[in-house]
Amino acid sequence: MTRSRRTRTNLVHGGTRRSQYNEVSEAIFLTQGFVYDSAEDAEARFIKAGDDEFIYARYGNPTVRMFEERIALLEGAEDAFATASGMAAVNGALTSMLQAGDHLVSARALFGSCLYIVDDILTRFGVEATLVDGTDLDQWRAAIRPDTKAVFFESMSNPTLEIIDIAAVSELAHAVGALVVVDNVFATPVYSRALDLGADVVIYSGTKHIDGQGRTLGGVILGSKEYIRKTVEPYMKHTGGSMSPFTAWVMLKGLETIDLRVRAQTQSAGAIAEALQNHPKLAGVVYPGHASHPQYDLVQSQMGAGGTMLAIELKGGQEESFRLLNALEIIIISNNLGDAKSIVTHPATTTHQRLTEEQRAELGISRGLIRLSVGIEDPQDLIDDLLQALEAV
Ligand SMILES: Cc1ncc(COP(=O)(O)O)c(C=O)c1O
After folding, report:
1. I need a labelling partner for 216 at 20 to 30 A (CA). Which of 82, 136, 155, 210 fits?
2. 185 lines ligand 1 (CB under 6 A)
3. What is the mean pLDDT of residues 349-354?
4. Is-above-0.90 flag for pTM?
5. Helix (H, G, I), strand (E, B), or coil: what is residue 145?
């Protein structure tokens, strides 16, 4: 890998493998398998495949490998394994390292499917899970035990945008030898310093900022070469959660522009947060990059920027929220994030509908809370759209 080059260069050239045609744009090797020159060659490859020797697309593929190398360069990780979705990455990272009798500590504020893996699937197979308020270091301290094997959390929570202190939690986990697994989707790989801060494993849903244009589902697990190739790869290749070559190509092209997109989206998110401050219809605006965020200093030291997501709290409830959503003319109603198109979501009735009212209250998800993923449109148009929609509330 070309480590000495800077990030923006690596995002365009990193991991590139050219075929005999010397193509400019990376090729999609849309093939499930590979031809061996001889029976002996096939046998040798099954015993030990070299870095550029492939066997079967579930095990690896040249286009997928290009994506893995490029994202590993961006994250500063030794290696990466690309997965069929973000959830395949979360499941693969945790299930491949845990076994019956192990103890896992996880932040409670998790995306619903992540919570299902931690609290339903893993516990069914004999892993004990303790859930904590991830922003409260005393709760981590109390929950982490000598037999804790891993800790898991989303570094920025969905949708309330609370930040978990990666360095502090890593210190507590490493004191008992537990591995630190961070779902870093909201922070984005552009602003990630998770490995430097102590995380052992970083996970992304590529469906978000990495694709960045709402086309494909995908994910990635990043960590040491030893963990990725000895722990994750055997689990993924035998259970079928690998990324398809077509998806890898889309994500590879997404990486070329991710730095430009995410920085522009972040700048717009900051402008929107500023424009909506003290709006009479709003009870609050949560933006990690705004000085009003209660963890602003931590955001600055951990990410250096506020990211692409905002949460706005209306003074009213669901009726007022729906009126706002329905009045928007540019910003679309959907549930993805990190897209080029700005997207609003009403978490209480969609992404977090399955939680009880009590669980939602505990996580701060009121019926007046709206999540906004800021896209790459002109920021003034987005501000104008939000202001005119607020008039309708
Ligand atoms: C924090 C977080 N982790 C994981 C996922 C799962 O990603 P995917 O939908 O690609 O499976 C999501 C998706 O919304 C998410 O928001």
Report:
1. 155
2. yes
3. 92
4. yes
5. coil
